[in-house]
Amino acid sequence: MSLAQRAATRAEQLRELGRLDDAERTLRAALAEEPADGELLLVLAAVLLSAQRFDEGLAVSAAAITATPDDERGHRIRALLLSASGRPQEALESGYRAVTLAPDSATAAMAYSMLLQRAGRLREAEQVAHRAIELAPQSADAHFQLADVTSDLGDRASARRAYAQTLALNPDHAAARHDLAVLDARAHRPGRALAGLIAAGRLDPTSSDVLRTVTAVCWELSWRARMLFLVGTIVTIGASDPGDEPAWGASWGARIAALGVLGVTGGLGWWTARPLPRGAWPVARAAILTDRPLTLTYLVLVVCALLFAAVAVSGHAVLATGVWLALMFLGLMTLAVRLLRHRARRNR
Hints:
Elements: H1 3-16, H2 20-33, H3 38-50, H4 54-67, H5 72-84, H6 88-101, H7 106-118, H8 122-135, H9 140-152, H10 156-169, H11 174-186, H12 190-203, H13 208-239, H14 252-273, H15 280-290, H16 292-314, H17 320-347
Helix pairs in contact: 1-2, 1-3, 2-3, 3-4, 3-5, 4-5, 5-6, 5-7, 6-7, 7-8, 7-9, 8-9, 9-10, 9-11, 10-11, 11-12, 12-13, 13-14, 13-15, 13-16, 13-17, 14-16, 16-17
């Protein structure tokens, strides 16, 4: 093995470990001796892609293609760099060139499917993803690409099957674990979604998507609690004895209704938390605390639960009107937060 080949192999290993600076230093030292070596240039372009230094990567990928014009890797890496740089049409041209040069390469097919997906050509992306699976049926990444595309198409059943197959082939595939949890969240299965997200976070602790999605699931759970408390307020006030003296006096009907609300709330909480693994609470707490409106929402919900407890003890249904006011406040606050965040996204 030549010096350049050893440097390329070492740099690729460093890239896979995430040590991008070390990989780049290794490659540039070798390129100082052999500046036109195609293998070194290909690996350097891949390193720069991983480092999100797209402009530099494009220049290096062009040099790599000049050195090895018939190697699909140069065209594939250049296509991904072009796509990341916001040049989708050029990216598709380079991606197509890669699959033309290597029609039996599952890696080239996966990359081309991804490029088609980014360009919004989802049906074509799905067909190419199926082709990648035909070429490499034991590739977890090929099944993951199909799952990603079918999820974007709205075909949740196919996406779920493909994610499950990805995890069967590679149980440590953090992205598949995360995206499957997202499907559970969209299917209104918050317990399963949180369990999957926590598992994904353990597999890839550096992922920022996990905490963001946990926050979204916590928002959904807060909405469930609000709807329950709204119905509970109506039932509790309606259950108070109109013949009580004085008006809004202690009522056993109000006590029983409030206890029922607390019991249902506790039962739903247990059912949601049932599939969660150990260590779930710190993750959920961190997600709630990182979003100030969500933190306030849960504090207000705790107050609502305390008001129902007060009704259960005292029998005074008038206390349930405090829950009504608290829910009205949360509704107005949530509307304001959504408008502000939507405006912030549009201004980016």
